[in-house]
Amino acid sequence: MQFAKFDIGLFLREHWQRKPLLIRNPWTDWTNPLEPDELAGLACESAVESRLVLRAGDGWSLEHGPVPEARFATLGAEPWTLLVQAVDHHAADVTALIEPFRFIPNWRIDDVMVSYATDGGGVGPHFDQYDVFLIQGLGRRRWRVGAVCDEETQLLPHDDLRLLDHFEATEEWVLEPGDILYLPPRFAHDGVAVGDDCMTYSIGFRAPSRSELIAAWCDDALADLPEDDRYADPGLPLQDNPGEISAQALDRLHAMIAERLMDREAFARTFGRHSSTRRYPDIDWRPDEPMEIAELRARLEQGAALSRNPASRFSFVAHAADALSLFVDGQCFECRGDAAAFARSLCAADRVEAGPDLTDDALATIRALCNQGSIAFDEED
């Protein structure tokens, strides 16, 4: 699916991370990509993250998945919502929803969460720390949007849900199938199903916190430091008071830290690995049998194409026209020449035809990516 009418440049200039935007059905031909029963089936699987949010009067409750299949028959008439995370990892038609939004860099894209709600169902007024496009897939949902929130915003006392203590809407819309609502971070919002069979696709975008960046960077920096890299002060001057930590000592100590932390190339490698780590790294996507170079070369000579694993994350940092660092699933691959050209193509498209005339370096990179489960030959090939 692609957009028939949507001004990306105008959106980035005026709305991205600034203000909400309602986009009335911009698709060439909208079709709901997942049936409610398929979503419920995913929620029953242990490897899939899911939640049930139920509302009874003014009270809210949360149940974590996997959801027993029999549970759906006992939910009753009270409003409820099923939320399933990272559905794009499991359903190709849902994965395809991300493609029109690739004007946002790969490393910012998180996943596609899908929700199903009965009449009156929702998750309550809240705010998120990330950008999101809310696509109405099936049925109708009323969205109310309020003010920008922060860490001082009062929340209701609840063990599991971060619901706003006070919510006052400033804008309100009812979304029909194909409509999209864009929300920047921290805008208060509340979505309520209008009628049954309400499905919403939430394409979320990551924004690392300063604390996450510092933690990841420091962990990597510490791992590379030798034990004998220590403070030294030859020519130590005599101090008037031995209890003082002198300005000269502080300058040297601070420089020891700043010199390491200001290494931009090392930070780029750390961030590339950190940002490309899979959302669910414990799931093993490796093939049953490792790919060998001879088999790989033969498949490529036959014209077979390679496809990305929807659960994998791909990005790169360019060093020169023909050299880059490719980051996939927390791993770094240094690429030059045709390996770099392949890496650029792989980051730009879900499916790549690598061609038969590749160097040994390029083949080694492709083989490593196949064997860690990040890419695979198309089944139809």
UniProtKB/TrEMBL annotation:
Its cofactor is Fe(2+). It holds the Pfam family JmjC_2. InterPro entries: JmjC_dom, NO66-like, ROXA-like_wH. One of its GO terms (molecular function) is metal ion binding. Coiled coil: none annotated. The keyword Oxidoreductase applies. Gene3D superfamilies: 50S ribosomal protein L16 arginine hydroxylase, Chain A, Domain 2, Cupin. Signal peptide: none annotated. Keywords: Dioxygenase, Iron, Metal-binding, Oxidoreductase. Residues 93-222 form the JmjC domain. The keyword Phosphoprotein does not apply. This is Transcription factor jumonji JmjC. It comes from Sphingobium cloacae.
